[in-house]
Design brief:
Blueprint lengths: L1 H26 L4 H32 L1
Helix pairs in contact: 1-2
Length: 64
Amino acid sequence: MKDLKRLLIYGGSAAGAIFLLTVLAQSHALSGDAMVGLAVFLVIVLPIIVMIRLARREHDASRR
């Protein structure tokens, strides 16, 4: 059940990030370089940080 919940959260977050990037690209609110930086952060960096935090929480909970 935890895995399904994580999948739904991760999938929803990915869809939200794609929607945000699409809206910003269509409105020309950011330059191309800023869009690339934001995309890298949202698609690569942020999910890694979130997964590391979740793994640490699980590890700490299993030690108790």
